[in-house]
């Protein structure tokens, strides 16, 4: 999974969508990812026990809608 960061403006919208999609994940757990796609991906796999491709497909779809920002080094 790519290592990108969601912009602060888009993060609340994406977080709400993630919680609708995966109800087992709390707002606090999502906040601990700091909007990192890689961290969100790992959290979803761990908490929901989903296969890699399933998580990747849903995240890719959501990212098309909320467009991640490139992580600055």
UniProtKB/TrEMBL annotation:
<protein>
    <recommendedName>
        <fullName>General stress protein CsbD</fullName>
    </recommendedName>
</protein>
<dbReference type="InterPro" id="IPR036629">
    <property type="entry name" value="YjbJ_sf"/>
</dbReference>
